[in-house]
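Exercise: predict the structure of this protein bound to adenosine-5'-diphosphate.
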Amino acid sequence: MGIVETKNLTYEYIRRDEEGNVEGITRAVDGVTMSIEEGDFIAVLGSNGSGKSTFAKHLNAILYPTEGSVFVDGKDTSDPANTWDIRQRAGMIFQNPDNQIIGNVVEEDVGFGPENMGVPTDEIWVRVEEALKTLNMYEFRKHSPNKLSGGQKQRVAIAGVVAMHPKCIIMDEPTAMLDPLGRREVIRAARALNDVEGVTIILITHYMEEVIYADKVFVMDKGRVAMQGSPREIFSRPEELKKLRLTVPQATLLAYELKKRGLDLPDGILSGDELVREICIRSGKNMELEKYKKALSEFAN
Ligand code: ADP
Ligand code: MG
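Solution:
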């Protein structure tokens, strides 16, 4: 069994009037079956309203299925007796770092999670130090979170989850409110947690560029899984992605159009650099790689 297993997961938001009569039903997640192995880096893509957040909230027992089931590390989320264990094993990061940070000092904030779990004080400090170092935020341990950039705050929030030693971290659009540098910092941190610490990462995003390092990508639309595969498999279907209102990277689109016009290029080009490399190899211009790379990267990224 994987670390996360959903079977036919369905969730309906029910709107009621003041008397409690049902006014409307929104089926936000509609029959999602997904199996995620421990140690995987998974990306869940989808445009606004496709059901990503509703899905994510099930993995942390914030919401319970209307139909179907969710197992986290073998535990059924719909059994309240499992909620505590599930929240320790599967940590959650949200869009807005300001809503996730409560401490006045960075290291205090990171310590709250393990403290709530009843970890002994000595060990809390060891965990806080480790977590801050892993997230490259150790030098800020005595700072006030208020003065940090968005990307730094988000990394403090992630450190807070890491200090609880979860097996899995679900990040729901963690970069949506960040500038490009902050976005890079957070994605790099997520990759390092997965690569170095072996933490299972489920990254929810609507930015296509953030999924290129994932082991597997699920694309959601109207509450269902509309596409799934490796990033390369997903990127080789740009027309379908556009129909799902996702912005495909320029380099991917350009490669796709060139290929359609007869150029011999591989499927699913992921970045400007990769496109440049493939074109250079094919045109025998290896010597001028740097020159081409610069010119094309400026254009394609
Ligand atoms: P995403 O995270 O992909 O933007 P959501 O899971 O937030 O998608 O939303 C999926 C659908 O559920 C949307 O149609 C949205 O309007 C609806 N929805 C989300 N939250 C609520 C809520 N609290 N009450 C009613 N409907 C909701
Ligand atoms: Mg959302």
